[in-house]
Design a protein that fits this description.
Elements lengths: L7 E3 L3 H5 L11 E3 L1 H22 L7 E6 L4 H12 L12 H4 L5 H9 L9 E8 L3 E8 L3
Parallel strand pairs: 3-4
Antiparallel strand pairs: 1-2, 4-5
Length: 145
Amino acid sequence: MTKFSNNIRNNFGFLNRATPEGIGAKDKLFVQEGRKVFKEVVPMVSQLILDHMADEGLDPKDLKRMWLHQANKNMNDFIGRKVLGRDPEPGEQPNILQEYANTSSAGSIIAFSKFNEDMQEGDLGLICSFGAGYSAGNVLVRKRA
């Protein structure tokens, strides 16, 4: 899904800032309204996940693991609570921020790569990434034999 937001953006970057009229202008670089992003993205992504699961006839209680976008642990924790209806148990929502920091949308795939070996046949998981704009997408995965 995509929902327009101006809360994360790049106003043309360093080249625009290097022009005479841009020198020293703070609005020529990456701009993020973090609190607004948090308040808008958490419900949007949570609802995207819940709607996707409902469309597939699945209950969030069926999820063994969620590999979420790795930009903000608090954001992931809130999404996990909204989706599961409770605090995620250790291992249900792995976090790689302490090791890799913010790897943008690749973080969910890095987390998936590092934390999938214990999945058993039939286990259900969800990979979800989101980013500027706002754009969000997810995929449900089930372990096969």
